[in-house]
């Protein structure tokens, strides 16, 4: 494709090049020796390089050989993103499942790749959607950076530690991901690089952050369209990385496949099949990602896989006891740990979330920092972590179902008591442009009637037989007094259990 300039435009371009070369001391004799690298340092780029970027190939154990745009690599090759290599995907679960050593880094790369797969599949199937290269890049970057805000041991940090040390503060890792994304872009000077690859700032920065954490402006949250990065005509783009409507997104696709692979658990959901049938249909004035009617069973398998992972791994009784002990150790160590942040300021573990430079330095290594410390003020925290290493763990007294809240564990299909499939739209082969709904009774009478349950679990810090037996009897009587189901017993005093805060007996 040829680009034609008018004489005036040519003179302007020539003049700008002349000024640029003069500022860098480039004279006539030196022009033949200029390389693309020299020109890039001066801010001069070839259009063909911008349009035909050479993709980098990575070998991933889950998705095979994956291709990533060079702009994504600029994000990956930063201290803020590399930090994710040192945060376990499943936190304390690794101390129960030996294979669960994977981290947030590889998961994030996988989500970035799958985000590109889905948006490109939609573009190829429906060119009338007018998905641009900039849209594709923004969706991929959002997938890549969606977990930048996770703290040590992943969900342990924002789900257990922060609520204890900063009660009442509604801090979530999604907002920390947005803050870390801003920090990453700023300190690594990526604004210019993003513009060089065709992105429009600040609009595309807003779009990327909205995909990670939802609408950024709470004042327009109740409006018909609360997003600013993309218009309502492209509403479907917000359902790729973090689908707030029904939970079907590439984040789940990757962690289902990756977690199952490392845990040794069967994954029953086939995301490749979803990619083949995904298309965009209009529903009440907005465009949503839909799939074929015959794929409803595959989607039920997806949410069932999520539930099974929680039951068998994420809420494993020993794994959650270990995470409870790690949390206690971190709480005791919190005032005594010093992390240097911006402008030389010092932060504790809990206050590091207020400064992204300090937070960049906060990873799973804090466990070993406490464990191998000789500081007297860390003795209590160190003793707890030493007990974990030596497998002297709290014991589970019992578990029962409940209708009221008391150290409750929630098991569901991703939308609490609701059936997430009720928020999914499908299309028929006869008319692929028309979105329809499929009710549970149309699929199978064997599907669950309830999509959520609550469990109460009690842990005992004392591990001698006398204390455990007394705790067991007390818990059984406590359940009977409240008309709860009798606690499940397996071996003597051992009871089936998972995450709950420990109860001292």
Automatic annotation (TrEMBL):
This is Deoxynucleoside triphosphate triphosphohydrolase SAMHD1. GO terms for cellular component: chromosome; nucleus. PANTHER family: DEOXYNUCLEOSIDE TRIPHOSPHATE TRIPHOSPHOHYDROLASE, DEOXYNUCLEOSIDE TRIPHOSPHATE TRIPHOSPHOHYDROLASE SAMHD1. Residues 104-256 form the HD domain. One of its GO terms (biological process) is defense response to virus. Its main location: nucleus. Belongs to the SAMHD1 family. It catalyses: dGTP + H2O = 2'-deoxyguanosine + triphosphate + H(+); dCTP + H2O = 2'-deoxycytidine + triphosphate + H(+); dTTP + H2O = thymidine + triphosphate + H(+); dATP + H2O = 2'-deoxyadenosine + triphosphate + H(+). It is found in: Chromosome; Nucleus. Keywords: Allosteric enzyme, Antiviral defense, Chromosome, DNA damage, DNA repair, DNA replication, GTP-binding, Hydrolase, Immunity, Innate immunity, Metal-binding, Nucleotide-binding, Nucleus, Zinc. The keyword Aminoacyl-tRNA synthetase does not apply. GO terms for molecular function: dGTPase activity; GTP binding; metal ion binding.
């Amino acid at each position: 494709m040829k680009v034609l300039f008018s004489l005036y435009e040519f003179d302007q371009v020539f003049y700008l090049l002349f000024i640029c070369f003069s500022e860098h001391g480039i004279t006539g004799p030196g022009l033949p020796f200029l390389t693309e690298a020299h020109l890039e340092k001066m801010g001069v780029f070839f259009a063909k390089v911008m349009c035909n970027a050479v993709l980098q190939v990575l070998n991933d154990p889950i998705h095979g050989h994956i291709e990533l745009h060079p702009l994504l690599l600029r994000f990956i090759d930063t201290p803020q993103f590399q930090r994710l290599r040192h945060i376990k995907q499943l936190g304390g679960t690794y101390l129960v499942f030996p294979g669960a050593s994977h981290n947030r880094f590889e998961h994030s790369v996988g989500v970035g790749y799958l985000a590109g797969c889905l948006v490109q599949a939609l573009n190829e199937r429906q060119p009338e959607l007018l998905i641009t290269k900039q849209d594709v890049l923004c969706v991929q970057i959002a997938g890549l950076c969606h977990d930048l805000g996770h703290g040590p041991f992943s969900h342990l940090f924002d789900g257990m530690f922060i609520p204890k040390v900063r009660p009442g503060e509604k801090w979530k890792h999604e907002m920390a991901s947005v803050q870390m994304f801003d920090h990453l872009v700023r300190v690594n000077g990526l604004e210019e690089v993003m513009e060089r690859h065709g992105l429009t700032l600040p609009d595309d920065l807003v779009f990327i952050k909205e995909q990670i954490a939802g609408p950024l402006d709470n004042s327009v949250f109740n409006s018909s369209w609360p997003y600013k990065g993309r218009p309502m005509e492209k509403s479907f783009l917000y359902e790729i990385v973090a689908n707030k409507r029904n939970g079907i997104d590439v984040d789940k696709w990757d962690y289902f496949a990756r977690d199952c692979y490392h845990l040794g658990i069967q994954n029953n959901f086939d995301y490749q099949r979803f990619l083949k049938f995904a298309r965009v249909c209009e529903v009440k004035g907005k465009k949503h990602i839909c799939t074929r009617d015959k794929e409803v069973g595959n989607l039920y398998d997806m949410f069932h896989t999520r539930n099974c992972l929680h039951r068998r791994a994420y809420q494993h009784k020993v794994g959650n006891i270990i995470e409870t002990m790690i949390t206690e150790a971190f709480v005791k160590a919190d005032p005594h740990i010093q992390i240097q942040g911006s402008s030389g300021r010092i932060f504790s573990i809990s206050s590091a979330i207020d400064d992204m430079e300090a937070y960049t330095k906060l990873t799973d290594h804090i466990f070993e920092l406490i464990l191998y410390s000789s500081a007297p003020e860390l003795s209590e925290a160190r003793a707890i972590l030493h007990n974990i290493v030596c497998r002297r763990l709290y014991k589970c007294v019992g578990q029962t179902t409940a209708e009221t809240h008391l150290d409750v564990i929630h098991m569901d299909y991703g939308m609490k008591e609701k059936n997430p499939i009720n928020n999914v739209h499908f299309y028929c082969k006869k008319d692929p442009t028309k979105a329809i709904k499929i009710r549970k009774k149309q699929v199978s009478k064997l599907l669950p009637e309830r999509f959520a349950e609550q469990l109460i679990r009690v842990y005992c810090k004392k591990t001698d037989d006398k204390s455990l037996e007394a705790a067991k009897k007390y818990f059984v009587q406590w359940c009977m007094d409240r008309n709860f189901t009798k606690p499940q017993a397996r071996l003597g005093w051992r009871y089936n259990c998972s995450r709950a805060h420990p109860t001292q007996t």
